[in-house]
Amino acid sequence: MRVPNSVVLPVGTHVDCCQEEEVEEKRQDITAKITAMLAERKSNLAHCINNLESSEEPKFYVDQWERLKEMESCTLTILNLVAVNCMDHHDIKKLEATILEHVKNEELFPEVVRVLPPVYRQVEAAIVDIAQSEEMADHGMMDLQYLLSKLSQHKHLANLGRELLQDILRYLHRIGLVVWYEEIKQLENTVFLQPTFLITMFKLLVRYHLVQQLESIS
């Protein structure tokens, strides 16, 4: 909701736990809830903006007003929900094909046709090698400066600078090869070369009925 011109593909899992007629019913329910959520967000933003504009000293709230207006201008494109059975390889391939079909759609992603400098591919290949090397810890976490020094050991990347590496990491973060939380101060110098490790951690920490499970502990 905070990213300009976002495209969201809702994915419904656990189809194997539903009757066939339930799937369509739940699909319609989820779509309706998303529509209602977006309408409520739009209404809330308009209400907050109106409150700031009608305050006695609106000049004191210019920063807040600008942030709200920026959020208001962020458009979302919600694609049709894809229902999958995660235990079925065919369904996973169907989801993969759907994602690829959407990301190649120039109407959804006007910048999809973009020629990257060769150094982007070279850094990507080198990072894959580092992530798969035996010396890489299972958690895949690496200090940004140390990563730069490792990459600089490659002959064709000897002149790689930190600023260019950061640009490349932003691209690799967007395509999901690495995770780099540059906007979080405590993590801005840490690059996660194994995003699947984070998924495993989140699965341990964030789970269904977590509150009830914690409350059951004496």
UniProtKB/TrEMBL annotation:
This is MFHA1 protein.
